[in-house]
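Tokens in:
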């Protein structure tokens, strides 16, 4: 599994990367904001994990840009954030996020959500992009 982790916190990137490696990620690419994340999408990913609050290009704008590009429009996207309001979760789903996890989280929660969204995105054709909430 090839993954992209986009978060402005190097500590959070490290936590996510370590969790991904325990569940079998073979390659993990890092980016500190949405613009860097887009620049790293020159080859396909099996999963993209992003934060919401980032400088330069935030998580929602990043996801909208991913969904507007044919190469990444169907790539599963998991948002890992501190934003816990129901309206935030709804807004993320409308932007194209497939799953949503609140910080802090355990590696098991990350593993379960990844399994859920990768299965649902493989088996779902069409839909509103909000699967896995």
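Residues out:
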């Amino acid at each position: 599994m090839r993954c992209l982790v986009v978060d402005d916190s190097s500590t959070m990137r490290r936590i996510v990367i370590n969790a991904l490696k325990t569940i079998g990620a073979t390659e993990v690419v890092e980016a500190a904001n949405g613009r860097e994340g887009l620049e790293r999408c020159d080859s396909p990913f099996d999963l993209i994990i992003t934060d919401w609050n980032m400088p330069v290009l935030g998580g929602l704008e990043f996801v909208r840009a991913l969904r507007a590009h044919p190469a990444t429009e169907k790539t599963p996207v998991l948002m890992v954030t501190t934003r816990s309001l129901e309206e935030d979760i709804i807004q993320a789903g409308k932007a194209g996020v497939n799953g949503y996890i609140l910080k802090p989280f355990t590696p098991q929660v990350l593993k379960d959500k990844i399994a859920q969204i990768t299965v649902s995105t493989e088996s779902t054709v069409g839909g509103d992009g909000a699967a896995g909430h």
